[in-house]
Specification:
By secondary structure, the chain is of the alpha+beta class. 20% of the residues lie in helices and 29% in strands.
């Protein structure tokens, strides 16, 4: 009998547990068991025979239903998880009417708002979040006090945060007021709370942080707390040629 073995993290992603990269983190952290034994990164399973548990909950491959790709306009105050042990509001609350088991693609911290992609397609999530793709993410950011031209120049070239230099980015000053500056920032990497840490480096407070696009996909006029399905063309562009013309990598 020939078994169809697949990598454990791919199986988890295909089942909608999390993206492939996040599934790898779960495996490394000991949260995944196969047939009662703690799994290791690199393990392969036979989905028809092996029993997989994540946080002691059985993971089962769904046999029907297609892939789902949505964009959500995440309001401030929601954490980018499907559940939270501390009882905080989760983005799962905003998409509970979707029958498929979707999960966030990447992250957007609790105090940030704007475009968040969600899917049950592990390959798609892996493509969008993989560092080699360097997909452009555009943010509108309001900081206080006023940001100087010299600070903008240094941020664009990269600064050292948490022992590692940030990748070069693009920053455009949209407007200046007496005690604050409105910026458009284009980042090509997805480090945790990167913009906030970049601004904190210069003693700047982030008053508002809103993501308006990921690659060629723009949030547009989607209202806060609402979601819509991505079009076939939006999914295709993110999967094949993610960055639109006009922004260099």
């Amino acid at each position: 009998m020939r078994y169809n073995y697949v990598r454990l993290q791919k199986f988890m992603a295909d089942c909608g547990v999390a993206s492939r990269r996040k599934s790898e983190e779960m495996i490394e952290n000991g949260a995944v068991k196969v047939n009662g034994k703690v799994a290791r990164l690199g393990d392969k399973i036979n989905p028809d025979v092996d029993k997989v548990y994540v946080y002691n909950k059985r993971v089962v491959m769904k046999r029907k239903g297609g892939k789902r790709y949505i964009m959500l306009n995440k309001p401030r105050g929601y954490v980018t998880t499907m559940s939270d042990e501390m009882g905080r509001k989760c983005v799962a609350d905003l998409v509970k009417d979707i029958p498929e088991r979707i999960y966030p693609v990447g992250r957007l911290d609790r105090d940030s708002e704007g475009l968040l992609l969600m899917t049950n397609d592990g390959d798609f999530a892996n493509t969008v979040t993989h560092p080699k793709k360097q997909i452009n993410k555009v943010y509108h950011v309001t900081v206080r006090p006023d940001m100087t031209d010299e600070q903008v120049k240094k941020l664009c070239g990269g600064i050292v945060i948490d022992g590692r230099k940030t990748a070069p980015c693009e920053i455009r000053v949209m407007s200046r007021m007496e005690d604050r500056t409105n910026l458009e920032m284009v980042l090509h990497e997805g480090r945790n709370r990167e913009i906030r840490k970049m601004c904190e480096f210069f003693g700047l407070d982030v008053l508002r942080l809103r993501r308006i696009s990921i690659g060629s996909v723009k949030m547009g006029k989607l209202k806060k707390g609402m979601w819509r399905d991505l079009t076939f063309d939006e999914v295709r562009k993110l999967s094949q040629n993610p960055n639109p013309p006009g922004h260099s990598r």
